[in-house]
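debug: dumping io for the single-chain case to check the tokenizer round-trip. Nothing else runs in this session.
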Amino acid sequence: MLRDQTLLEPALAHVHPFTCGVDLHCHSNASDGVLAPAQVVMRAANNGVRLLALTDHDTLDGLDEALACARQHRGLRLLAGVEISASFCDASVHIVGLDVDADNAALRAGLQRVRDGRAKRAERMAAAIEAALGVRGALAGAMRFAQNPAVVGRAHFARWMVEQGFGQDEAAVFQHYLNPGKPGYVAHDWVSVPEAVAWIQGAGGVAVLAHPARLRLSLKARSALIRAFAGAGGAAVEVVCSAHDDKAVRRFARLAQGLRWQASVGSDFHAPGKARFDLGGCPPLPPGQRPVWTRWLED
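debug: decoded output
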């Protein structure tokens, strides 16, 4: 039985009135989301999603459960996806892989390498948080909020810190402790952008540059990233997502058109009420875009 049936109710107040029925970026508790994979699928189905990709951070562990649930919902197609943590110019970059072969050995080995780095970073982050707050037990506390201990990250530490009274909510904790430059933040060298793209393409998937407006890069470094991503074979970008306001949507729509890239849409859903858009709640792409999902809806 699902632990909390109320989590499955569509949060219609967060759903844009002109949704496109596609959501190609979301998370379950296999990484840093709060809903089980099946609950994510059920919520998406309730919200009218026709094409969904589960893209947990650096893991494929939630896909079997999600796929089993998706088979019970006619009209909803689920793509096997992943969001890979990469580094560029000392900044974290996220590359979403869509429609990957979850059994691909090279992809799985690569993701294991990333998770090993995550575990070491979590230990350093726990030490930094404990030193900043004068407390103990940060790592164990974060682990309690992680369904998958192999992918403990900042969100899990944030949930523990809220529980301990160090912030009103996760956003406040990030702002004061866990964002770059704050006392609990620990930089980490992830894999390179070309490596992440190669793993995705080697597994038969499509690589998408995720929420580019969030990148903490100078204009020069951002241009270099785009060249590196394109040079590795990446040819799609998230244009519409919860992290993009209308200005950012227009900006990256122009980028996609100028580079003849395909455009993607994703809520980056982690938990009910925690993002600008609920599952399936993103507005459509601006006119003139080439949707990355055409091939899957036409199959």
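debug: round-trip ok. Residues 105-133 form the longest helix (29 residues).
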